[in-house]
Amino acid sequence: MSTAPSYSPPPATGPVAAAARTPVRLFLTILELAALGVVGSGVMGVLGGGLGLGFGLSFIGVGLLVLVGLVYAVFGVAWFEIARLNGLYGFDLPALRWRAVDRPGFGGWLLSLWRQAYNGRMWRALANFAIACALGSLLLRLMAWFGWSAVTAFAPLFTSGEVDTGWGTRYPSAWAPLIGGAGAAAGIVGIISVALLHRVISRGIVATPDRNLDLSEQVRTTTAQRAGAVRAADVERTRIERDLHDGVQPRLVSVGMTLGMAQQKIDSDPEAAKALIAEAHTSTKAAITELRQLARGIHASVLDDRGLDAALSALAGRSPVPVVLDVRLDGRCPRDAEAAVYFTIAESLTNAAKHSRASECRVVVRVRDGGTLWARVEDNGIGGATVLPGGGLDGIGNRVLAAGGTFRLDSPVGGPTSLEVSVPCAS
């Protein structure tokens, strides 16, 4: 039984959708600021008290423990603030992460704690939290002002005398609707202004890209890609050496020995010599086939000439395991992206033929939104595939990493095995 795929319209975009979302976000901002105005002063008071207590007791050692706990508390508050802004405004900021421990033992933990203590992004998020709490306190006062003004506007319904302003002055109740209405309007304007000001401040403090952080992330990404490229080259060189040593080289040695035997028998036993020459000829053709396959594994010329779709079709036609190919590409992607996906699929099909005992493989290739070349290879074999250093799957991971992509392997024991890769293909 098959069911028709469900369809849901894509989310609206553009000025109309933004206008529809703005009142909701504004209302949520007011609610969150009001909540922070209630609890935020207590949180900041605890953090400030912990800071003073930690420095005050540091001379006896207990304060150091308080300061360590304070770093963790500040990290928690900063993490919450970034998550709150992402949920409220959709800033799509990366989550705050604890600095990694790159050394074993207590020294490594202490170093990571010190690095976290001067993490500028954490302190900016804390500063934004403190400002939001202050704005929340101001918002609560404006809300109280709005409530008092709204009640004052209806004062003529309850009294015909004078109305007390609460600041030692009084005015006739006939003026109450005008004064109360103006006060309520001013309160609404103030509440909305505070909510909008919170967004502007948050964008300036937390959502503004940190150039040093961006540069550090670029350095880490470049280093990882370079390391992946080096490891992929090492794995590829090892594979070529293994294929030459275990395949072509013994066959060529056998051809040489067979021709030598034929040379010895060509005068005494011409028929046996002819048989040996025929055997050498067959072995030579097999060696040429293996060399072609080896060269194709190094560089697929059809990939450059006709693109990924044609290259995968040729690859599926040579596979000993039947392949269901589903490739939908609108155009060409950069060569590095196409090569990474092609060799990933080729290695996956080779592994399926050698180890998985699969009777069918399915290959799906798409270009997803955002300029990402995505591929999935799945077989119905026995599963249990693992990434081993120097193995084929390790080579896949290194090649994909060198191209700036990611890959995911799912191979439970009993199958099926699926491998997904995503490689940036934006030119």
Automatic annotation (TrEMBL):
InterPro entries (UniProt xref): HATPase_C_sf (IPR036890), Put_sensor_dom (IPR025828), Sensor_HK_TwoCompSys (IPR050482), Sig_transdc_His_kin_sub3_dim/P (IPR011712)
Protein name, UniProt field: histidine kinase
Broadest EC class assigned to this enzyme: transferase
Entry superkingdom: Bacteria
Ranges annotated as spanning the membrane: 26-47, 53-80, 125-148, 174-197
Entry keywords, A to Z: ATP-binding, Kinase, Membrane, Nucleotide-binding, Phosphoprotein, Transferase, Transmembrane, Transmembrane helix, Two-component regulatory system
Signal transduction histidine kinase subgroup 3 dimerisation and phosphoacceptor domain residues: 236-301
Molecular function GO terms recorded: ATP binding; phosphorelay sensor kinase activity; protein dimerization activity
Gene that produces this protein: desK_5
GO cellular component: membrane
